[in-house]
Write a structure and sequence with these properties.
768 residues; 6-stranded parallel beta sheet; 4 domains; alpha/beta
Length: 768
C-alpha cells in the first residue's frame, strides 16, 4: 500500500484543526492509501519588516507577549483533544527541522498539504508549502486556506509565489484564495471542499460523544470577542424559550449567565452541534458542522469588513457555495425575525455535488503523484538540504567529489561534483543533518554545573568562565592534541587549528569567542590516530563524532561543543571590517577581540586594533553586534538546527546568563556533562583546584539559554542581497532590517521591568 504524508495543523486545541486533519486522513485511507500526519509543530512567529512601525501596534505586541491572552485554560479540554488525536490519526515520528522533514522523501510516495489556514500570510511557514519535498510532482495541495483578501507583505508575497509555483496539483478552500493565486502566479487552482464536509454525518457520529439533552438548547460558540453575537444569543433564547450552552473561549464567557460546558474536546463538540436545537457561531467549522447535521444556525462575522486581515471569506465562501448566505446575521433585527430553519435537502444536494467534484480532484491528484516513474529532478546526488559547512563529508569521500566553499551569501557549504560522485552514501553517514540526532539533554537528571577557572589571568582572557581553556590545558598536558577555533587575522576569518600535545603555551589562541562560521575542512582531515580534544559548535561536533565512530576511534577523543547562538554571514564581517577601516583607520587586517571585558563579562564589547588605532564599542552600539543579536543573518542551518537540546559531545560549555550570577564580574560558565568521561574530567579539574564547580538544576539550561531555533525572516534573501552590494553601507542595511527588532526588545525589557515592579508591589499589598 502506498504511503501518503499529510502536512497540516493538528496540534492546536481547536475543534476545526483536529476535525479537518481527521477527515483528510480518513478520505485518503478510503482512497486506498496509508496516510500519516507529519508530526511537525512550528515554534515561532512570522518575522518580517513593518509589523511594528506603528507605535500602537508595537505596544500591543509587547503587551501580548508579556500577558497571556484572556482565553480559557482547560486541562480537561486539552486531555480530550489529545485522546481524540491519538485515537483517530497516525502521526509520523517527530520532525522539528528541515532535515528531519527532508528524510521523509524516502519514506512516502506522495505529500499533501491542507486543509485549514496553513497558507495564511500572517503565519507564513514554507514547510506548509512542502518546501522540503524533492520532487514537486509528488506534492498535492488539498484545500489550504489563505484566509485573507490580500497579501500585504511584499516579502511574503514573493516567498508564496515561488513556493506555490512548484505545485502540479493545486487546490484551495475559497474562491478568494484561487483568485489570489491566479493573480500571484498565473496558475489555476481548484476550489475544493473542506475535508470535514467530505464525510457523512454517520461517519462523524462514530467519532462523536453522546449528549444527555438532545434538541433542548442553543449552542453558542464564538472565537471573536464581539458584542453583537451575544446580544443576538439573548434575543434568540428569549424568542425560543431555550437555554443556552456555551463552549467558552474567553474568560468573560464564564460570566455571561449561561450554562458553560467545560472539558469539550472534538468528540464532545460534534455531539453538542449534532444535538443542538439552534447553533450561534462565528466559527467556520461550527458553521460547517451545523450544515452537515442539518441544524438551524445563525452565522456571524468575526472580523470587521474594514479589517485588511479579515478571515470572514471562509464563512462567505461556504455559505455562498450551498446557497445559505441568508444565514449570515449582521443585526439584532435578524435574530428577532429571521426564520430559524432552512432548506436542508437543497443544501445537501449542493454539498453532494461539491463533495463528488472535490473527491475526484484528490483521487486524480494522488494517483498521478504516486506514479512509480517519478524520480528526483535532474538525478543529482544530494547530501542534505541543511548543510552547516562542517566539511566532514570531504574526509570520507574517496572520490574527492565534495568540496567546501563559501556561497554567495558568505556561508560555507559542501557541494557535490556530480561527475565524480559514485553515490556511495558515505557522506550522508557522517553528515550532522542526516540520520538520527544525537543524545537529548536530560532535563530532570542531567549533570549541569556552574564553573569558572581559579586563575584570574585565564578569566580575563576568556569570554566567560575559562573552563574551555582549563580543560584543553589539562588534556594537552596528558598527551592530547587540541583542535579549536582561532581567528586568522590575515584572512579575516575563523578557522580550526591544531595544537600538538604538550604545547600548552600555544593554547591561548583558542581563548575568547569568535562569532563567525569557522573553516574546519583541514582540521577534520587531521582527526586520525592521535588522541585529541575537539572544540566547536554542536553541528561540527556531531560531524566529528560520526566520523570517529565510523573509524572506530571515538574513544580516542574528547569532544566539547559550545552553546551556539548561530553563525552570521562572512559577508557582514568583511563589509564591517572594510567600512570600519575607512572610518576608524585600523587597517584591513586588524587584531580583533569579539568579547573584550573592560567592565566585566556581562557587558559585551568588541575591540579592534591596528595601525595604532583602537575601536571599542559595546554590543548595544556596534554594527556587527546589531546583526548578530537580531538573528536575521545566520546560516540557513542555524534556523533548522537539531542540536539546541541535543549533543554528541562529552561536555557542553556556554555562558551562564540569567540573574543568578549578574554580580559576577569575571565570568561564569555553564557546563553540562553529557558522558561519564566528560563528568570525570570536570571532577578531576575540580579536585586539582583548576576550576570551581557547583552542580545546579539542569532545568536552568532551558530558563537561561532558551534553546530554541531562531526564526528565519521572510526578508532573508533580500537582506543577503543587500549585504553583497558594495554600494549599500552596512549601517543603512542595519537600520532597515534590525531597528524594529531592537525597538521591540527595548520596549519589552522596559515593560517587563515595570510589570515585575507592579507584581512585587501587588504582592506586598496582599501580604504575600
Amino acid at each position: 500500500m502506498k504511503k501518503v504524508a499529510i502536512m497540516t495543523w493538528y496540534h492546536y486545541k481547536n475543534f476545526g484543526t483536529a476535525l479537518q486533519v481527521t477527515a483528510l486522513s480518513r478520505i485518503v485511507e478510503k482512497m486506498g492509501y496509508q496516510p500519516e500526519v507529519i508530526q511537525y509543530i512550528p515554534h515561532g512567529k512570522l518575522i518580517t519588516r513593518g509589523i511594528y512601525q506603528n507605535p500602537i501596534t508595537l505596544g500591543r505586541a509587547v503587551v501580548r507577549r508579556l500577558n497571556a491572552q484572556n482565553v480559557i485554560r482547560d486541562e480537561k479540554r486539552d486531555a480530550a483533544f489529545s485522546r481524540f488525536i491519538e485515537k483517530h490519526i497516525k502521526l509520523t515520528r517527530r520532525c522539528s527541522s528541515a532535515s528531519e522533514l527532508y528524510a521523509l522523501n524516502g519514506e512516502f510516495d506522495a505529500f499533501i498539504c491542507g486543509s485549514d489556514q496553513i497558507w495564511a500570510p500572517t503565519v507564513f511557514d514554507p514547510k506548509y508549502f512542502l518546501d522540503f519535498v524533492q520532487d514537486s510532482g509528488r506534492m498535492v495541495a488539498y484545500a489550504p486556506s489563505i484566509g485573507v483578501s490580500v497579501i500585504e507583505d511584499a516579502y511574503v508575497r514573493t516567498r508564496m509565489k515561488d513556493l506555490i509555483r512548484r505545485f502540479e496539483h493545486l487546490s484551495v478552500r475559497e474562491m478568494q484564495g484561487a483568485n489570489i493565486i491566479k493573480e500571484l502566479c498565473g496558475k489555476d487552482a481548484t476550489v475544493a471542499l473542506d475535508p470535514t464536509l467530505m464525510l457523512d454525518p454517520d461517519e462523524w457520529n462514530s467519532m462523536a460523544s453522546d449528549q444527555a439533552e438532545p434538541d433542548s438548547y442553543i449552542l453558542a460558540y464564538f472565537l471573536g470577542n464581539n458584542k453583537l453575537p451575544w446580544r443576538c444569543v439573548k434575543i434568540l433564547s428569549d424568542r425560543t424559550d431555550l437555554p443556552v450552552k456555551v463552549v467558552p473561549v474567553f474568560k468573560k464567557d464564564l460570566q455571561r449567565g449561561y450554562h458553560v460546558v467545560s472539558g469539550v474536546g472534538p468528540a464532545e463538540f460534534l455531539g453538542l452541534v449534532r444535538d443542538a436545537a439552534l447553533v450561534c457561531t462565528d466559527s467556520f467549522y461550527c458553521t460547517a458542522f451545523s450544515m452537515l447535521y442539518g441544524r438551524p444556525f445563525f452565522a456571524f462575522e468575526r472580523f470587521s469588513r474594514k479589517d485588511v486581515h479579515s478571515q470572514n471569506s471562509r464563512i462567505y465562501n461556504i455559505l455562498g457555495t450551498v446557497g445559505l448566505m441568508d444565514r449570515l446575521s449582521r443585526t439584532e433585527a435578524e435574530a428577532r425575525n429571521k426564520p430559524l430553519g432552512w432548506n436542508v435537502a437543497k443544501t445537501k444536494r449542493y454539498l453532494e455535488i461539491e463533495k463528488q467534484r472535490s473527491y475526484r480532484y484528490l483521487e486524480n491528484a494522488l494517483r498521478e503523484s504516486t506514479e512509480p516513474a517519478r524520480v528526483v529532478p535532474d538525478g543529482q546526488y544530494a547530501i542534505t538540504n541543511t548543510c552547516c559547512g562542517c566539511g566532514v563529508c570531504t574526509v570520507v569521500c574517496k572520490q574527492d567529489a565534495i568540496s567546501v566553499s563559501r556561497d554567495k551569501n558568505g556561508f560555507l557549504r559542501a557541494s557535490v561534483i556530480q561527475g565524480r560522485c559514485t553515490g556511495c552514501g558515505m557522506c550522508t553517514k557522517v553528515c550532522p543533518f542526516n540520520g538520527q540526532p544525537s543524545k537529548e539533554i536530560d532535563r530532570e537528571r542531567g549533570k549541569l554545573y556552574m564553573a569558572y577557572s581559579t586563575r584570574l589571568d585565564v578569566l580575563r582572557a576568556s569570554s566567560s568562565g575559562g573552563v574551555g581553556y582549563e580543560l584543553s590545558r589539562f588534556l594537552c598536558e596528558r598527551g592530547y592534541d587540541v583542535i579549536g577555533c582561532t581567528y586568522d587575522q590575515e584572512k579575516r576569518e575563523a578557522t580550526h587549528q591544531r595544537v600538538l600535545a604538550g604545547e600548552v603555551d600555544k593554547l591561548n589562541v583558542f581563548q575568547g569567542s569568535k562569532y563567525l562560521q569557522s573553516t574546519t575542512e583541514h582540521a577534520m582531515k587531521e582527526l586520525v590516530g592521535n588522541r585529541c580534544v575537539f572544540l566547536g559548535t554542536p553541528c561540527q561536533v556531531v560531524g566529528v563524532d560520526r566520523l570517529l565512530r565510523l573509524r572506530g576511534q571515538r574513544d580516542n577523543a574528547v569532544l566539547v561543543d559550545l552553546i551556539c547562538h548561530g553563525v552570521p554571514s562572512q559577508n557582514i564581517w568583511d563589509k564591517y571590517i572594510e567600512e570600519g577601516s575607512q572610518i576608524y583607520g585600523y587597517g584591513s587586517t586588524p587584531e580583533v577581540s569579539f568579547r573584550y571585558k573592560p567592565r566585566g563579562w556581562r557587558t559585551r564589547y568588541i575591540r579592534i586594533h591596528g595601525n595604532g588605532k583602537t575601536y571599542l564599542r559595546s554590543h548595544k552600539r556596534d554594527l556587527f553586534y546589531r546583526f548578530f543579536l537580531s538573528c536575521h543573518c545566520f546560516a540557513e542551518s542555524c534556523y533548522e538546527c537539531n542540536y539546541r537540546t541535543r549533543s554528541a559531545a562529552d561536555i557542553r560549555i556556554g555562558d551562564y546568563w540569567g540573574p543568578r550570577f549578574r554580580r559576577n564580574k569575571n565570568g561564569v560558565s555553564m557546563i553540562i556533562a553529557m558522558t561519564s568521561d566528560g563528568e570525570e574530567i570536570l571532577q578531576q579539574l575540580h579536585r586539582m583546584h583548576r576550576i570551581e564547580l557547583q552542580q545546579m538544576s539542569c532545568e536552568e539550561y532551558w530558563t537561561v539559554q532558551f534553546p530554541v531555533n531562531p526564526i528565519r525572516p521572510v526578508f532573508y534573501e533580500e537582506l543577503m542581497g543587500e549585504l553583497r552590494d558594495p554600494s549599500i553601507p552596512l549601517r543603512v542595511i542595519a537600520n532597515k532590517y534590525c531597528k524594529e527588532h531592537e525597538l521591540f526588545n527595548r520596549m519589552y525589557s522596559m515593560y517587563s521591568l515595570l510589570k515585575r515592579a507592579h507584581d512585587a508591589t501587588k504582592s506586598i499589598a496582599l501580604g504575600k
